[in-house]
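Issue: ligand-bound run for adenine - logging full I/O for the record.

Environment: standard queue, default settings, no custom constraints.

Inputs:
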Amino acid sequence: MRIDIITVLPEIFAGSLDQSIMKRAQQKGIVDIHLHQLRDYTANKHRQVDDYAFGGGAGMVLQIEPIWNIIEKLKTERLYDEIIYMSPDGELLNQKIANNLSLLNNIILLCGHYKGVDERVRQYLITKEISIGNYVLSGGELAAAVLSDAVIRLLPGVLNDETSALSDSFQDDLIAPPVYTRPVDFKNMKVPEILLSGHQKNINEWRHNQSIERTLQRRPELIKKNDN
Ligand code: ADE
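Outputs:
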């Protein structure tokens, strides 16, 4: 899979996508991430990519021209399955969206800034808009990093069997069961006996029941969704 990220702050991605699982996925050649500095695509001699909003009001707006230039250039190089704008008013990211995106070959993530982008970018260039939650970040970069992580960990070969994404919370609309590791007894706080029993069938049953109980307590809407 190839992910092209368009941003005025490419530095933000170094910390999140160049570590641990994300780093390994890139080293193994499973994902190819390309960062593009939007300022490289403007004709403005000061490399400015934003301007005042027509009609007035506080805040700057990212201009269409540099965004058009980079997206059109990328589109001449390969076919893109989705061109995604990270925006607080986009579709709320969930596991299903991440699963679907993980099946694609080439995607572009556009990170907004300031007051957002000129509406014509959303009308004519963007195919999908995604939000990572109902709150406003300073820019789309952290959202793009979250989305990339959620998608990349699903790609075949990124996780090994033990950390398989299939047992993640939300993968079957259930929250994952609690987990424990050594010591068995820490200051009289004990690991549930069943997990030490060696009876795999009983353990699996216990885990499943815990998942259902937790989901009912914490995310009842996930279970209700499946009732109809
Ligand atoms: N850009 C700013 N806030 C955002 C959010 N919550 N999700 C996605 N992109 C954003």
